[in-house]
Every structure is written in structure tokens, then in C-alpha cells.
Amino acid sequence: MKRFVLIVLLVLLWPGVALAQDANPLVVPAGQHLSGSVATVSRDIRVEGTVDGDVTSWSGSIVVVGQVGGDVVSYGGNVTIAPGGQVAGNILASGGALQIAAGGRVAGQRIESGAGGGALASLLDLVVPGTGSTELGSIGRVLFGATAGVLLAAFCLLFVAFWPRRTQLAATTLVYSPGRSLAVGGLTTVLLALVLPPFLALLIASVVGVPVGVVLLVLVLAAYAYGLAVVARVFSRWLADRTGTALGMGVTPVLALLALVLPCALVAMVAPLVGAALFHVVALSGLGAAILSRGGTLPQPIASA
User: Fold this and answer.
1) Mean predicted confidence (pLDDT) in 135-158
2) Taking a C-beta distance cutoff of 8 angstroms, is the pair 226, 289 a contact?
3) Are 182 and 285 in contact (CB under 8 A)?
4) Three-class SS of residue 135?
5) How far apart are CA 234 and CA 229, in angstroms?
6) Cα-Cα-Cα-Cα dihedral of 52, 10, 141, 280, to 10°?
């Protein structure tokens, strides 16, 4: 059974969603009316009654005999609309077959992707390997960690190269107010951890919301990459003071950045989730300094109280 831990966390934080992991299908019996949405992980869903919201299954098939007011989405399973079944939204069968019997009605779009669910499952197994992980999966995690490290270093260098004064001013804010920067970065991280998962769950459960969720995740990761660039600026100052070299876009900032990125990449090669957590922990003080300095636009750093 696939270990969709990331998706489980999202759904657990999503109020009004029914979550279950069972070999028996989740059945909404005829005559029952659910005002919310239904979601399962590795469990089939059969809707014989009425569901006002969305019906979503990760690695499970969905059969609609009754009525669904939202979207019907299955990642890695089949979607079947039986005679008399009605779906007011869109239908997505990613990695499975889509069957609409005569008499079944779908108001929205019908999307069938044979490779999408398999790719999603492979990606989740890469991040959270199951008990049946093979040597190929280990190689994939190594490549994942190496690629993530290279991309992270590249983005940080771009931030430093294109916004040298802003990153420098944010770094000065971090030097002058390390406690406040750490507190603001930590508070921001906690708030994102509480708000982002349920919001992403709402987006992912909807077919049209998936691209919006991807863009949102990219923006959040870019903010933390900017924070890591700020921390690298501070570390670069420390290295310059110790080695007696001048600051600038020379060897010292690059070495400082690599010293921060390399441990995250190495840990991600073994445990991707731990590597991602380490990256956020290292970058959160820089993110806090960037927030305090308004992205490095304040004319002077904030002095410590």
C-alpha cells in the first residue's frame, strides 16, 4: 500500500473531509445527503446518495451512482459514472480509466490521464519511501537530493546577483536583530504550516486548483530560498572576517552558500523530508530578516531592543 504521508497530513488538517484507510470501500448510501466533501487514501469510494462537495481518492477508485455537486478526482484509480449518476463539476482520472455509462451525466470537463497517477505515486514514494523500496528508489532519492541542492544554490546565487543591495541590507538586519529575525521567521513558518496544508488540500481536491497550488508552493519555496541567500550573506561576512578577504560576488559568498546548501542536499539524498525540514530551519532566520527589512528595501537596519 502506498504511503501517501504528505497527502494524509493535508487531509487531516482539512475540516469536513472524511478520511479513511481501509480495504472496504467507503459508501455513501442511497438517501444520505452529505453537505461537505469526501476524501480517502488507498480506499475506494462509492457514492449512491448525494455529496454536495468534491469526492477525491488517492490510490483508490470512485463509482458514482448518485449525485456529486463538486468535482470527482482519483489519483491512481478508476472513475466510473454509473447509469443515473450525476456530477455537477469536473472529472479527473489520473493514472486510471474513466468510464461514463449510458445515462450518466457530467456537467464539467472529463480528463483522463494514464500516466499522471503513476507519476504522482512515484514522486510520493520518492519523498516518503515505502517498505518495498528498491535500489532504484534509493538512486532516485540521491538524484532528487542532488537536483534540489543544485537548483537551490542556483536560485540563491541569482537572488544575490540580481539583488545584491537588498540581500545585503536584509543580512545587516539579521546581524543587528538576530533574535527578532529568528522569532519572525519562526512565527511565519508556524503560520504557514497551519494555514498552507488545508488550503492546498482544497486546491488539490479541485481539478482547476492544482496549477494554483503548484504556483503557491513555488512562491513559498522561493521566499525561503531568499531567506537562505540572506543567511549565506551573513555567513559570507563571517568568512571574510576570518580569512581577511573582501566581500563581493567572489569566492567567499559562493563557499558560504555551498556550506549551507550541501548539508541540506546530502540529508535529502537519504531522507528527503528531513532534508526539506533542515532547509527551512536554516533559512527561517533569513526569511525573518527579509520580512523585517521589507525584502531589503528599508534604508537602515532595525536595531536590537
Assistant:
1) 77
2) no
3) yes
4) helix
5) 9
6) 140
pTM: 0.58
Instruction: State how far the Cα of 142 lies from the Cα of 271, in Å rounded to an integer.
Output: 9
Here the cell at position 195 is 494555514
Q: Which residues of 127-159 are buried (b: 16+ CB within 10 A; e: fewer)?
A: bbbeeeeeeeeeebbeebbeebbeebbebbbeb
Provide the phi-psi class of 246: left if phi over 0, else alpha when psi is between -120 and 50, else beta. beta
Is residue 208 helix, strand or coil?
A: coil
Please report the pLDDT score of residue 213 as a whole number: 76
Distance of CA 87 to the CA centre of its chain: 28
* Cα separations in angstroms, 115 against 82, 94, 100, 120, 304: 24, 7, 20, 9, 54
Q: Sheet holding 62-64: strands in order across? A: 26-28, 45-47, 62-64, 79-81, 98-100
The rounded distance, in Å, linking the Cα atoms of 273 and 123 is 12
